[in-house]
Amino acid sequence: MQSPMPDPIACSGVSRRSFLRLAAAASTLASIPLVTEAHLAMAQRPHFEDPDKGIHIDANENPLGPSTAAREAIAAMIPKGGRYRMNMEGELAELFASQNGLSPDCVIPYAGSSEPLHYSVLAFTGPGKALVVGDPGYEAPMWAAAISGAEIKKVPLADAKGAASHDVKAMLAASATPGLIYICNPNNPTGTTTPRADIEWAVANAPKGTIVMIDEAYIHLSDVPTCLDMVKAGKDVIVLRTFSKLYGMAGIRLGFAAARPDLLKKLDRFGGRNSVPITALAAGMASLKEAGLVAERKKIIGDIREENLAWLKSKGYAVTPSQSNCFMLDVRRPGKEVLAAMAAKGVYIGRIWPAWPTQVRITVGTKEEMAVFRTTFEEVMSKTTAGMEPAELPWRVRETPFSHLS
Ligand SMILES: Cc1ncc(COP(=O)(O)O)c(C=O)c1O
């Protein structure tokens, strides 16, 4: 006769009732899909293409990749990969905190900033606690709000043909009970910036308990001042940083949430702590220590961006005044046609936002990639693109319900 299996609940020291409560919570929380720029770009790509083939300027990636010091740090960490090295997240948080005048308990590293972005929306929005975003803007917060059940208020950017900054007054007026106000500075997709004074106004005037989340994914590429000091001042803000953009580590996965410890604690129930591979932590540490890296890369990417903006303007096209590694280009016809026609020639541009249907986002690639972009773009624009449509999407993204975002 088989001996009876031990009861895992009885063994755990957790009461049956609280176990069931935990299990129910876990089953709802375990199914949170994270939406990243890569998912969103793939969802608009006419067909899936190997990133090593063709020109990929549709996901705001950095073709420079990790810095030399970051690559060396990863290589040096590989032989040590048999250990958990639980101290490394804390060491990275301490380094970032000391560089930015913060207390280390205000900083948590994650495997990319998509994690804390989603977790913040889940923690602070829900029925009766709206998410307020700029439009066009980065869609991931809306995706998370669809899961939290929050009403989504999309507020057009102010002065759309000019500065295209977040209209903070309209954002605050959009909901009487906002849970979280999302300000991406510089903004994805436009690369445009929102003045510090406007963000300060939003933080000062948001209803008590409302979180202003400032996403600084692209800040290193711009001249805008950081809002990390608002964390130090104890405001109701969460600041997000990623290593995916200037630091070229999108595939390595590393980012930060910076906020008061009591706010950060609210993100914990969705996951994330001690989830970052030590290779990413080592690369992050090396990147932060590399003096001159930010300025050097900001110049490389900025120069290529400005060269292309000037060329497009000389050809009569309207573009956004970007301070980022992307900009919006008005193609004066349905953007999806141009996206499809370019993709047919192996140049992947995008994405497209429903609010600005004749505009296509272009990520700044290398000098060589952008030369191919310009030649291909002229060729495509010299002919009709009528009827060109993104084709069948690959199975992995076909089922992604992005329709609620439009
Ligand atoms: C505005 C913005 N925030 C956050 C992210 C998340 O980046 P990651 O999860 O790669 O750190 C991205 C990625 O493109 C982004 O554009």
The residue-averaged pLDDT reads: 89
Biggest β-sheet: strands ordered side by side in the sheet = 2-8-7-6-5-3-4
Radius of gyration: 22 Å
The proportion of residues in beta strands is: 5-15%
Kindly give the count of domains: 2
Anisotropy-based shape = globular
Structural class: alpha/beta
Q: How many E strands? A: 11
What's the total helix number?
16
Order of helices and strands: HHHEHHEHEHEHEHEHEEHHHEHEEHH
Main sheet properties:
7 strands, mixed
- What hetero molecules are in the model? pyridoxal-5'-phosphate
How does CATH name the architecture of the largest domain? 3-Layer(aba) Sandwich
- The top-level CATH class of the largest domain is Alpha Beta
CATH topology assignment of the largest domain:
Aspartate Aminotransferase, domain 2
Task: Report how far the terminal alpha carbons are from each other.
Answer: 61 Å
Low-confidence blocks of residues? 1-28, 393-406
Give the fraction of residues assigned to helices: 25-40%
